[in-house]
Amino acid sequence: ATVRDRATGVRRAAQASDIAILFRSRDSHREFEKAVERRGVSTYVYKGLGFFDAEEIKDVLALVGYLADPFSNLRTAALLRSRIVRISDEGLKILAPDLSGAVTGEWPAAADHLAADDRERLRLVRDAAGTWIDLADQWPFAELIDRVLAESAYAVEIAGPGFAQARENLKKIRGLIRRIQNRGYATLG
Question: Considering only CA atoms, which of 177, 183, 80, 68 is closest in space to residue 125?
C-alpha cells in the first residue's frame, strides 16, 4: 500500500508509523499492542488508554506503596515482583512469610535457598532500600521515584518497542505525583 507523505506530499510505501488501530473500548488493546510489538513494530497508545494497567505504572505504584509502608509484607511483595526488583514467584515463596524483614532486617537464612539471580536481586534491593526509606519523608516524592528508577536501571526494563509509550506513561505518573505533592500531602502514606 502507498500513502501520501505528510511532509513532502509525495506518494511512498506505507510504514508502520502510518498505521493506527482504533478501538471501541479498551478491553483488548493490550493484546493487540503486544502482538504488534512481537513483530518489532513500536506502539503508542494515544490518550493513555488503560493507563493504570500499564506495567510501568503498576511498578511505580508498587514502589510508592512500599515506601509509604515498608513493613507491609503485601507492599513488599508488590515491589519485589515489580520490574524494579524482579524477584521470581518461587523466590517470593522461599522468602515468605517475612518479606518485609527479608528487605529491611537481617539477611534471611531462606535467602541461601534462592536461585542465584534472585539472591543477587535481593542483595541489591537490601543495599538500596534503607536509603530509599530514609529519603521517603525528606525528598519530594517525584524526585525520589526518579532516583529509585535511575538506581535500579529501570530504563533497561522498559527498553524495546514500547519504550516511547512507557517513557510517556512515567512522565504522566510523575506529573500526577507532583500535583498530589503540591497540594500539601507531606508523606507518601
Answer: 80
pTM to 2 decimals? 0.75
110-154 pLDDT, tens digit per residue, is 999 999 999 999 999 999 999 999 999 889 888 999 999 999 999
Beta bridge partners of 4: 11
Amino acid identity for residue 107 in this structure? W
Count of beta carbons in the 10 Å neighbourhood of residue 26: 14
Q: Say if strands 2-4 and 11-13 run parallel, antiparallel, or are unpaired.
A: antiparallel
99 within 8 A of 105, measured Cβ to Cβ: no
Count of CB atoms within 10 A of residue 136's CB?
18
Beta-carbon contacts of 127 under 8 Å, excluding residues fewer than 6 positions away, are none
Cell of 172: 504522566
Distance (Å) of CA 187 to CA 11, 84, 100, 125, 139: 56, 22, 20, 22, 10
Residue 158 to residue 18: CA distance in whole angstroms? 24
Rg of the chain on CA atoms, in Å: 20
